[in-house]
Design a protein that fits this description.
Blueprint: H1 13-21, H2 27-37, H3 42-58, H4 63-75, H5 84-95, H6 104-124, H7 133-139, H8 145-161, H9 170-175, H10 182-196, H11 207-216, H12 220-243, H13 246-253, H14 258-265, H15 277-301, H16 334-337, H17 343-348, H18 350-358, H19 378-394
Helix pairs in contact: 3-4, 4-6, 5-6, 6-8, 8-10, 10-12, 11-12, 11-15
């Protein structure tokens, strides 16, 4: 009797099921199964599908068995229509299972196969997407390029053809704008822009995040997608404001900020797309911090990290210089202080004026200079006027 049991034969269904149940399914086994399935009747295919689904329930912790069973299910030409939702439920439960460090790599391979299988269901009938929207959106942030790209194309199809599927899952999509993966940010912004063309109210909460990405993020693709989505949503918000009567706009939006106007467009406060002000600030601040770290990481990877511009500490302001002592201006003479007086003219004419006055007629009373012969001078004429006025007042 041999110490070890021989490997089951792969030329029949029973042997292949044994190989899958012991966790030794490989590409050769799958090729053999594919050639056998092509010749099987519909009833035999249904029986094989039931056996493989039993493995998903019977061995929830054996990653090798689970991976082989999922790969075998994908090879079947069809699945029992009545059991599609049951299979999807099983696959989603496997995705949510906690990951241990020991089987992290095996879990990764299992996750890839599950995501491919879920996408198969969605392409067969987009109705099944309603059963797995949170998982599809979360899988878009996977570091495996094949998974993220496949999921993005599937979600892109749904955003264009069935945007209503995102009504209650837009918050999860918006949060992907803060992913550390640049590709995920670009893809999320692209999906938001597609949804906003027909249902901007689903993704209006993304405005502050899109504005931040379009303004500060260094990656060109992320900036372009974020700017396009922002413009689409913003134009729809402006149109809604213009449709409202002027009195309503003044009374409701007159004292509201930009973020408040966005909240008005987002629907009732009880929907899943609501974010608190603290969450908005936290995500935007986290995004801006990642902009700086991403730039430094890129330069470090190129060996020129010393070129990264880092904020310099602000220098202390120098104390203000003492004011210069005020110099008191000398007082001007009365002649220069009199307004409207032309001193230059008087400086040129005194000699000629004095000569004309010395040669002129004299006052008959005091002998002073007067303007005409026999006429009193100004002083004498004034005194004479005062004397006559006093005399007439006495009478």
């Amino acid at each position: 009797m041999p110490l070890f049991g021989s490997r089951p034969q792969t030329n029949n269904v029973e042997g292949i099921l044994q190989i899958i149940s012991i966790g030794e399914c490989d590409d050769h086994t799958l090729d053999q199964l594919y050639s056998i399935v092509e010749k099987m009747s519909d009833d035999d295919v249904k029986s094989l599908a039931d056996a493989l689904m039993t493995n998903l329930v019977k061995y929830p912790d054996n990653i090798s068995v689970l991976t082989g069973s999922v790969k075998a299910l994908e090879l079947l030409p069809f699945l029992p229509q009545a059991k599609n939702e049951f299979i999807i439920t099983l696959l989603l439960s496997l995705l949510k299972a906690p990951v241990n460090k020991k089987d992290a790599l095996q879990r990764k391979e299992l996750k890839i196969e599950i995501v491919r299988f879920l996408v198969y269901f969605v392409k067969a009938d987009d109705y099944y997407a309603t059963l797995m929207m949170p998982e599809l959106i979360a899988a878009m942030d996977d570091t495996h390029a094949g998974i993220s790209t496949t999921i993005f194309h599937t979600l892109q199809m749904l955003a264009a053809q069935k945007p209503e599927y995102f009504e209650y899952h837009s918050a999860a999509l918006i949060k992907q704008l803060g992913s550390i993966n640049k590709l995920t940010r670009a893809q999320s912004a692209k999906l938001i822009g597609i949804i906003a063309r027909t249902h901007p109210e689903y993704v209006s909460k993304a405005l502050p995040f899109l504005q931040s990405l379009a303004s500060f993020y260094p990656d060109a693709q992320v900036k372009r997608n974020a700017n396009e989505a922002y413009q689409i949503i913003w134009r729809s918000v402006k149109k809604e404001e213009e449709k409202a009567p002027a009195s309503v706009r003044d009374s409701e939006n007159g004292h509201k900020s930009f973020v408040d106007l966005v909240k008005l467009q987002a629907g009732p406060s009880g929907s899943e797309t609501q974010f608190t002000d603290e969450e908005l600030k936290e995500i935007i601040e986290l995004t801006r911090k990642e902009f700086k770290s991403d730039a430094e990481a890129i330069l470090d990877s190129l060996g020129v990290g010393h070129l990264a511009v880092k904020a310099k500490p602000k220098a202390k302001a120098a104390p203000p210089a003492p004011e210069p002592p005020k110099i008191r201006k000398p007082e001007t003479s009365l002649v220069t202080a009199r307004p409207g007086m032309d001193t230059r003219r008087d400086a040129k004419e005194p000699t000629r004026l004095q000569q004309s006055r010395q040669a002129g007629p004299r006052c008959p009373k005091c002998g002073g200079i007067t303007w005409a012969t026999g006429q009193l001078c100004d002083d004498c004429a004034g005194a004479e006027f005062d004397r006559k006025a006093a005399k007439s007042a006495g009478k």
